[in-house]
Write a structure and sequence with these properties.
With 238 residues, the chain is mostly helical. It is 67% helix and 0% strand. Helix 4 crosses helix 5 (75-81) and helix 6 packs antiparallel against helix 7. The chain is elongated, with a radius of gyration of 21 Å.
Length: 238
């Protein structure tokens, strides 16, 4: 009886529209760098249940009641922590990107030089995101939902990753490991967009599950970007 009464309580009202905030990738990266953790056990339980539900049925086919049932809690318990399914889905995806950045930062730290950092970063990014059960399922089953959750922010998510890569390249410049003439913002933009395109659009040419092939592609096509042409050299053979 008590649970029936609890379920009868109206869900929390939808929050007022707010100005566009940080993108999912932005927040995930900042949380990884700052090692921000959620110590609310019930939130974690609900997020785990939502993760399981979304993997099986996708976000659009799932309801808050489905998540509550999977978590073994009342619907109102879910609503007390996540006012809408959109907010819940966002938090689940954010948590997966946080895990990705945790792995990414460790992977590139183990690379021996700038070239290897580029190769490892490229391979690590594609492997971690495509191999993630939830993100992989969303890319396959609900690509429109997944892509819109990342880039439906005026391009800030891509810009944030580009700025991160550009900062890494800037550090390499200051260390003297790459040319001071390198246009780091442009190179970072190209690298990020190449990686993002492989995530968003299936390839009929490149086996995205083959780490060795991805590493070879990075060495052949990404590493030459680190060697800018000299004065007056603008052609492909520059």
């Amino acid at each position: 009886m008590k649970r029936d009464q609890e379920d009868a309580v109206e869900p929390a009202p939808r929050a007022k529209e707010l100005p566009l905030g940080p993108s999912l990738i932005e927040r995930a990266y900042l949380q990884a760098v700052e090692q921000v953790d959620d110590d609310d056990g019930m939130r974690t339980r609900i997020l785990d249940a939502a993760d399981e539900q979304f993997r099986r049925w996708g976000v659009q086919r799932s309801t808050m009641e489905d998540v509550a049932r999977t978590a073994g809690v009342s619907r109102i318990t879910v609503y007390r922590r996540f006012s809408t399914k959109e907010e819940l889905a966002e938090r689940v995806i954010l948590r997966e990107f946080r895990r990705y950045f945790d792995t990414f930062l460790v992977d590139i730290a183990s690379a021996a030089d700038v070239g290897e950092r580029v190769v490892v970063g490229f391979v690590s990014s594609l492997r971690a995101l495509r191999g993630n059960p939830l993100i992989g399922a969303l890319i396959t089953a609900e690509p429109d939902y997944f892509v819109s959750s990342l880039v439906g922010d005026g391009g800030r998510a891509v810009a944030m990753v580009r700025e991160f890569v550009a900062r890494q390249l800037g550090q390499e410049q200051r260390a003297g490991t790459i040319s001071a003439d390198l246009r780091v913002e442009l190179v970072a933009e190209l690298m990020v967009r190449i990686c993002a395109s492989f995530l968003a659009i299936p390839s009929q040419v490149v086996d995205l599950d083959d780490d060795e092939q991805l590493a070879a592609i990075a060495r052949q096509f990404l590493l030459p970007m680190l060697d800018p042409p000299g004065p007056g050299r603008t052609g492909p053979d520059a």
